[in-house]
Amino acid sequence: MDPIVDLDFIDNRTPEQATASAAACDTHVTKDNNTGKSRKLYIESYGCAMNFSDSEIVSSIMFEQGFDTTSDIAQADVVFLNTCSIREKAEQTVRNRLGQINYHKRKKPGMVIGILGCMAERLKKSLLEEEKIVDLVVGPDAYRDLPNLINEVDGGQKAVNVLLSREETYADINPIRLNSNGVSAFISIMRGCDNMCSFCVVPFTRGRERSRDAHSIVREAEALVAQGYKEVTLLGQNVDSYKWASEDGTESVNFAQLLERVALLSPDLRVRFSTSHPKDITDEVLYTMKKYDNICKYIHLPVQSGNSRILELMNRTYDRAWYINRVDAIRSILGEDCGISSDMIAGFCTETEEEHQDTLSLMEYVQYDYSYMFFYSERPGTLAARKLEDDIPLEVKKRRLDEIINKQRETSLARNKRDIGKVHRVLVENFSKKSDQQLSGRNDQNKVVIFDKKHYKKGDYVNVFVHDCSVGTLFGEAVD
Ligand code: SAH
Ligand code: SF4
Ligand code: F3S
Q: Could you list the residue range(s) of the whole structural domain that residue 251 is in?
């Protein structure tokens, strides 16, 4: 399948890097899993890492129901699109894709088409009326019901379940790692979000925040280590508010403690996490990161805007000074080399030129390694859509976004240049995109490093001397 390019999402990272963030906006198709089951499932996932992780849970539920996965849509009996609603563009991409899928359905009329994820939750039953080829609409908390819903569709009906839950964490479901390179895997540690940022649709599509049983998270990480995985990324919309307590109240675990438990499993397991919220990230988390070499020194800390009035309108519950204080804490506890990345929204409601300049000056101050950058897209039902006018003209939003992107390119390059002349520990994930004589991996700070293969292979930790860089990549040579 051709990659679908989201034009309001611009960065220079590899898919591995992009999906490590809860902000990612790329597309994944599940790999083949051929165990001789009678029916075939094809899943395409859009949006963030939570969605990619959910598709692995869905694959597992469907496997129990007699489905292998296929990467060839023409072979599929059931086609799922696990969708994203974060910006209007994300939804439009899915609608366009449905148009293309219609071609396959016409050739194979029994093909079942399901919409999962955030768009299913946002649009509910109305999706069935708007998109005639859709048979099934299932929200993020209803995947356990898929076997029943598939039965209903097999019986000739259309089926919908978009109930949100306060408890569902799919803790007991063993995900089938279809999106993985066999080296790194995602583990969902919580679901939903209680933050109500005024621009954001996630609290409506994913429901209330809930934390998953800490023991089930540690068991999942342990199983991954046993299978030879070298890296896990703990996922949540706001990992710093992770809080789990046992039913009898004798045990309670916060995010720093969870990180520690996972880090202790093996010194050879790299631990990453995403996303941190500036209002919640604690010094305890930073000191835990410092204490364990295998917790990667990289933090995705989305700021959204550098101006305090805009941050208030966004309901982010921190201001510029608070954010700078958190960045200073990161730099003083973890050092200048700790990677920091961000998400930025250009042209939020009522943003003036001076306020936009504050975003640029904050970027200059923080020196982000990279960012996900967007222009504001009003989402129906959000606080901003109800209370604020989307009054910045599109061309102004785009021009401000361009300025933000240019600033980011500057700081990315400056940060990458600092890495030249140093040896980095790189976990190899794949061949480089350009040559099978070169390998691609990431250093501790989540930067992509390319180097000649020599005798190294996927899953190895390699010390690489970096001698060159571009805006998005470091280039080096393995040293023994
Ligand atoms: N939980 C994460 C963000 C998840 S959404 C956090 O709080 O940081 C990923 C990113 O999409 C957000 O950080 C924001 O930059 C962007 N985004 C969300 N809603 C948007 C909208 N309506 N328009 C433009 N960008 C948006
Ligand atoms: Fe959306 Fe804010 Fe929650 Fe992130 S923290 S998912 S931006 S509401
Ligand atoms: Fe993720 Fe998009 Fe939903 S960013 S939580 S898939 S709206």
A: 184-417
